[in-house]
Amino acid sequence: MGEFFPAPIFFEGTVFEFNRMTLVRLVATAALVAIFWVVTNRARLVPGRAQNIAEMGLDFVRVNIAEEILGKQHARPFIPLLTTMFFAIFALNITGVIPFLNIASTSVVAVPLLLAVASFVAFIYAGIKAHGAFGYLRTTLFPSGVPWPIYIILAPIELLSTFVLRPATLTIRLMANMLAGHLLLVLFFGMTHWLFLEAGGALKGVGVITLGAAIAFTVFEIFISALQAYIFTLLTAVYINLSQEAH
What phi and psi values does residue 10 have, to the nearest 5 degrees? Predict the structure, then answer.
């Protein structure tokens, strides 16, 4: 568990404290920016392999998340946010299986919470822009077509669900999945190391099984890294759509 809270490297005890987790975040961010910088600067009418992969990724977010959920008319203002969110989360997740980095910086609460706040601001902004501040609160807390006594129960539920549980569940889902994945990888690779180098007799053979499990969980963690980026971005789009549309 100590890997999630590494010792400070610089500026210990200040708000600018820099540790291994911060370094991993900077490496992931720099790599993501560099990849898209190189691809866009070398963009051609007939795309090469790298440009084609980048365009497929961008089109996936635009078509399968933004336009699919929000519709073409409403999607355009939010495509930059959703695209940045998807690729940033994936980059910060995938560091958990990259040698010498070996930890997803989304496995501690700071980054998932920051992303959830960005999602929260986006869907509140979308709701206010579509309905006005008072209109958004009214359509959210007091949906039409409900007998007025039900509002006594419904309004607090909608208030908690929309303004508390949405950002909370976005944060916890992303953090918990990446934390659990890291613990599984550490468990099986650590077990394999012990069985091969320190265990005696027939126990060494069990190391082959744990090594196979470690490799399988590594592949699974790559899938989870992409899946969690997709789910987080998809739910953000869904929340924006719910804010724009009256109940």
Answer: -130, 155
pTM of the predicted structure, to 2 decimals:
0.92
The answer to whether the CB of 108 falls within 8 A of the CB of 172 is no
Of 233, 220, 214, 1, the C-alpha closest to 107 is 1
Element (H, E) at 10: strand 8-10
Within 8 A by CB and 6+ apart from 161, the residues are none
Q: Are 236 and 166 in contact (CB under 8 A)?
A: no
Residue 195 contacts by C-beta under 8 Å, 6 or more apart in sequence?
203, 204, 206, 207, 210
The tokens of 17 are what?
Answer: 């404290």
Which tens digit of pLDDT belongs to each residue from 177-231? Answer: 999 999 999 999 999 999 998 887 778 889 999 999 999 999 999 999 999 999 9
Cα 10 off chain centre by: 27
Q: What is the spatial distance between Cα 213 and Cα 1, in angstroms, rounded to a whole number?
A: 21
What distance in Å separates the CA atoms of residue 170 and residue 111, rounded to the nearest whole number?
Answer: 11
For the chain, give every domain's residue range: 2-244
Interval 116-159: pLDDT, tens: 999 999 999 999 999 999 999 998 999 888 888 999 999 999 99
